[in-house]
């Protein structure tokens, strides 16, 4: 077979058919190099296995149920889709200092119960890891620490140790001989991920890769890693609070809707199984401009407090939105302005979801509008009332999914009344204590809350 070569950029990994002085994708000068097409690193789409295979009939394929195991942290298991899958490659992303190393070191204690775990660190010394492990009270005997940054050497160690789980902290500090560029460059990160992926698929070992997220919220430049791994989890939270939220951006073995909520304490991360109580803990009573709703995060209903403030604008009216999609929030403000007597278009408007939660569920629309209206008219929304419903452009309130589940959660936390979409009423079989206030449009909802 004729040996073909291809050219690729050592900075961003972009492939071109011929040599160029400047990469068209990332604009770097003199970064294009030639490489045989069969070499790893440059061809990320190369097959996972190195062995050549013949096509097999679908019906003859082994079903081979995926084997799951618990990480010992139920919140993490939930986001992974019910535990981690053997032989999978999980990317664990997040801003520096958010608690990635803490979480993965913490789960070692449980994982070591059944497996040998190799924790590779390219960031900290063995001593630092030891100190952290003491703080987290990790006593596992078959946890091995390796301070190393060469992917080739790490995999050589793995061959002899044959661990069931490898944790790589972090992928940005790793380098592989396959690629000439510096550690942390996209080409290098891609090449190393490729090495770990091959190893995990051939040995059945589960690999957790830690990846730092840069300011733009992407792991190492382009989203190239996301396509290579089985699961991508992001660890989020504000540095000023102790609460952290884990969500899946991609999951080959489960849904991406589930979130995990954690609290960072002196002895590590603790899962929070009832986030609603925590999110509502500091809610002001009898204050205008706040409204509670219940959103579905995957299969779990979570109560969230939304706050709204409308202030006289000194220049062009500004909108500041935290925790909601900006466009959707603007749409809700426009609906309030056009469809009701609340004239908010010339005000500065601030909308905030408490607790660092990011809401995508349209069931929160009604609460968002009500809290802005309450901020405008100065009338507090009763503290035992919540509102659920999607709001359409004509001001109609549309039905919400999983309403019974949401209402039960609200009831659990002591809510007595709930504004619900009238459209939901027909099918609703709610026998609980909570009083339902059906509304078919914004006008009805505002009247029932404020009169
Ligand atoms: P770390 O896991 O090192 O973050 P990452 O690996 O994502 O960069 O977390 C560092 C922060 O967590 C640091 O500010 C100290 C804090 N921390 C605790 O509050 N409690 C703990 O038990 C540990 C180990 C860390
Ligand atoms: Mg770290």
What does this structure look like?
There is one protein chain. Helix 9 (365-377) crosses helix 11 (442-450). The protein has helices at 74-80, 100-111, 126-135, 151-161, 186-203, 224-228, 275-279, 326-339, 365-377, 403-412, 442-450; strands at residues 5-9, 15-16, 32-36, 68-69, 84-85, 89-94, 117-121, 143-147, 165-169, 206-212, 231-236, 243-251, 259-265, 268-271, 290-297, 300-312, 319-322, 347-353, 385-387, 390-391, 397-398, 417-421, 435-439. It has three domains: 5-42; 68-273, Rossmann fold (3-Layer(aba) Sandwich); 278-450, Ribosomal Protein S5, domain 2 (2-Layer Sandwich), CATH 3.30.230. Mean pLDDT is 88; it is low at 38-49. The protein is globular, with a radius of gyration of 26 Å. The protein has 451 residues and is of the alpha/beta class. The chain binds thymidine-5'-diphosphate (TYD) and magnesium ion.
CATH class category label of the largest domain: Alpha Beta
Oligomer type? single chain
Output the radius of gyration: 26 Å
Low confidence ranges:
38-49
- The share of residues in extended strands comes to 25-35%
Shape: globular
Number of domains: 3
Report the bound ligands by name, code or SMILES.
Answer: thymidine-5'-diphosphate, magnesium ion
Total count of helical runs of at least 4 residues: 11
| Rounded mean pLDDT score | 88
Spatial order of the strands forming the largest sheet: 8-7-9-10-6-11-12-13-14
CATH superfamily of the largest domain: P-loop containing nucleotide triphosphate hydrolases
Number of strands: 23
* End-to-end Cα distance: 82 Å
């Amino acid at each position: 077979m004729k040996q073909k070569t291809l050219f690729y950029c050592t900075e961003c990994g972009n492939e071109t058919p011929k040599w160029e002085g400047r990469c068209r994708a990332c604009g770097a000068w003199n970064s294009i190099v030639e490489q045989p097409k069969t070499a790893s690193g440059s061809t990320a789409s190369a097959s996972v296995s190195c062995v050549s295979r013949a096509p097999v009939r679908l019906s003859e394929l082994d079903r081979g149920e995926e084997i799951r195991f618990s990480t010992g942290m139920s919140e993490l298991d939930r986001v992974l889709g019910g535990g981690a899958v053997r032989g999978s490659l999980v990317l664990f992303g997040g801003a520096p200092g958010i608690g990635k190393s803490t979480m993965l070191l913490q789960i070692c204690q449980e994982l070591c119960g059944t497996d040998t775990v190799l924790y590779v660190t390219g960031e900290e010394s063995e001593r630092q890891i030891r100190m952290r492990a003491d703080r987290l009270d990790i006593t596992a005997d078959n946890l091995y620490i390796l301070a190393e940054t060469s992917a080739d050497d790490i995999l050589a160690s793995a061959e002899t140790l044959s661990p069931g789980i490898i944790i790589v902290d972090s992928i940005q500090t790793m380098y592989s001989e396959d690629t000439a560029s510096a550690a942390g460059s996209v080409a290098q990160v891609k090449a190393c991920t490729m090495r770990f992926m091959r190893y995990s698929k051939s040995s059945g070992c589960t690999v957790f890769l830690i990846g730092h997220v840069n300011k733009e919220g992407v792991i190492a430049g382009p989203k190239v890693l996301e396509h290579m791994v089985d699961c991508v989890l992001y660890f989020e939270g504000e540095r000023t609070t102790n609460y952290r939220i884990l969500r899946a951006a991609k999951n080959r073995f489960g849904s991406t809707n589930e979130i995990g909520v954690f609290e960072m304490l002196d002895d590590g991360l603790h899962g929070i199984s009832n986030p609603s109580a925590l999110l509502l803990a500091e809610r002001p009573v009898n204050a205008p401009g706040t409204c509670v709703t219940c959103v579905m995060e995957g299969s779990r209903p979570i109560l969230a407090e939304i706050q709204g403030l409308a202030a006289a604008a000194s220049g062009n009216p500004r909108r500041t939105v935290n925790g909601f999609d900006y466009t959707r929030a603007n749409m809700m403000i426009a609906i309030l302005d056009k469809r009701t007597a609340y004239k908010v278009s010339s005000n500065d408007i601030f909308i905030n979801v408490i607790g660092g939660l990011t809401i995508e569920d349209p069931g929160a629309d009604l609460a968002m509008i009500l809290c802005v209206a309450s901020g405008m008219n100065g009338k507090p929304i009763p503290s035992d009332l919540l509102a659920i419903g999607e709001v359409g452009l004509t001001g109609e309130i549309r039905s919400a999914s999983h309403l019974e589940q949401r209402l039960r959660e609200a009831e659990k936390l002591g809510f007595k009344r709930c504004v619900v979409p009238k459209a939901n009423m027909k099918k609703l079989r709610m026998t609980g204590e909570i009083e339902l206030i059906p509304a078919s449009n914004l006008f009805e909802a505002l009247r029932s809350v404020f009169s």
